[in-house]
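Re: Re: token formats

Sure, here are both.
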Amino acid sequence: MTIPSFADRIAPVPTTHSPKAFFTVSLLALIANAALAIYQFNKIRKNKLNPFKDEIFADSKAYSQVIAENR
């Protein structure tokens, strides 16, 4: 997402330049992404799904609700 250059004048937001803060946020994001990838690979392997042809989350309540709402 891009932010127009005039946004600094409308709503200035102070930022941190602390390397520790950047590292912490980056590490949390990496851990979350790795956990999601492991979860998805385990679900694919356990249910013997083809991620290119099959819906991975077809058995979830949220998936069923979205499908029902869009019929």
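Second one below.
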Amino acid sequence: MTVDRDLAEPWPLDRNVVFLNHGSFGACPREVLRHQAALRDEMETQPVRFLSRELDDRLDAARGVLAAFVGADADDLAFVTNATSGVNAVLRSLTFSPGDELLTTDHAYAACRNALTFVAGRAGAQVVVAKVPFPVASADEIVDAVMRGVTSRTRLALLDHITSPTALVLPIERLTAELGERSVEVLVDGAHAPGMVPLALRDLGAAYYSGNCHKWLCAPKGSGFLWVRRDRRADIRPLTISHGASATRPGRSRFRLEFDWTGTSDPTPWLAVPKAIDYLGSLLLGGWPAVMARNHELALEARRLLCTAVGSPPPCPDEMIGSLASVPLPDGRAAEISWGRPDPLQRRLFDGWGIEVPVVSWPAAPRRLVRVSAQLYNCREQYARLAEALGQELAAEHLSR
């Protein structure tokens, strides 16, 4: 799959680097950055007018566009800085008791898993980790693995919509339905989902959903959202308790008042979300469905190339892939890996080949994966270069042992 070079032009990415790691922090197009800069200029021209008199209406307008995109009612959405903040807001708001069980999987994002461990420890509750296989042959295996972790003491399940290390699109609708039948509420970490897969949050069945706009929507860093089902909204408070806890304003709920203002900060990442949605959707004929389909096909092609290069079969069915794909690699050397010091293979790919791609220790060193992202600025030739690089680097590793 060869992509028109014009599709890469909107991004200010370093052309000397093969950037295959959109999934970590996203990448924002120049047009969206210019829009955000204009908003900042406007704010700094008259900060009191912008933040005190106009911000509510501006946030309402931005929230309305986002709500339409993710299939939600705007009143049930709150802007947060990122998906991890939204997950923390929910977990820190809920009350648990000794003996309660909080369910997650071994594919959970480490930051959110840490938040779950923190609130469980404070309450005397227990975190139960469902072991989800990877490689995995079907969605049934995932549902079965999660449901085996449910007991009469399970109060909440924290589930990724799309797993960060293994890049699996979990069968989240089935999981929320089956957990609901067992009276287990679901908090979805949807960090990667907006802009990668279609969303209809009001129909999902979850109680809480936290997502990022800075990843696949390509909005500025610091833009995320928390969706809370209407019957649970009164229970959820922002991480920072501020003026909204006691303020009153006609037509605005406590949920809205508290989340919209937690103190002075830069709201322009949130206000730029509609621009990002509109701009990305304009880059391909067919709009966002075409963007998602194109990135999905590119991720599958990338996975085919990498699986051939490392000599392994695809670790999951095609339909469980979005715009990310992970491929298992031969084991590394556990002694060479530590927090803040990634697998040496990742450094060699960057230093020697100019390729920015994560090599992830999962579930723990020495086992590892390579995870590639597919965004409009990427093309098949970049993954072919990675496949060549991996083939040579892994061969060199083997000879050095």
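The chain has a mean pLDDT of 95. The longest helix spans residues 47-70.
- S.
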